[in-house]
Amino acid sequence: MSLRIAVLAPVNSSDYNEGLLASIAPVVPPDVEVQVYNIDQGSPCIQNRLNLAENALAVVRLAQHLEQQGFDGIWLSDFDMCGVEPAREVIDIPIIGGFPTSAFSALGLCQRFSIITILQSTLALQRGHVANYGQSINFASIRSIDCPVAQLGDVEVVLVKALQAGLAAINEDGAQALLLGCTGFMGVAERLSKLIEQDLGCYVPVLDPNQCGFGFLLSLVRMKVRPSRLCYARAPLG
């Protein structure tokens, strides 16, 4: 029997859906059915705390609907985990977002990681994720490429900026692996890793948040585990 996994893009736009499916394709096994969903209100992108707050309740409502439709798990395609925490108080299937899955994957490969993020507005926000998940001792740095979500589709320009930021994180901050701090970084991770290897002469992993997140979620679904009710007490959704 196949598993049903929903990819929930927590934005009021379907512009990124095809790219998200292409991004996770290498880690989707043949026995898994995947569908992408978007919220129908709020911001068309997540670039700051206001966007997170604006879109979170719509994410929770959609997550509840997806559970009712029989999905086995939800990959919330957002590095900043929009709506994940409150959704866990409402639904009984696993839902997980981008930062922890990328960070935990990196720590299976190295001891210190840096985040390559999009804008100045996400620097402090994502430093907060590091502290909240107890990863400060393993955190080397975070660097912005000053590129809004709407411009991440220009992969060649993104690669130039990300290479500069990534090399600085490695050479100046001591990073041993890089996390891409936005799920809009599509088609970047593998190419960036190869460019860094060409420059340094050694391999450095660059983690694609969509692949890390989807793969991590799938392992939770197969193990038949979900968020603890001792941490996420059930709350009624009005």
TrEMBL record:
Gene3D superfamilies: 3.40.50.12500. Transmembrane segments: none annotated. InterPro entries: Asp/Glu/hydantoin_racemase, Hydantoin_racemase-like, Iso_Racemase_Enz_sf. It comes from the Bacteria. It holds the Pfam family Asp_Glu_race. GO terms for molecular function: amino-acid racemase activity. Belongs to the HyuE racemase family. This is Racemase. It comes from Pseudomonas putida (Arthrobacter siderocapsulatus).
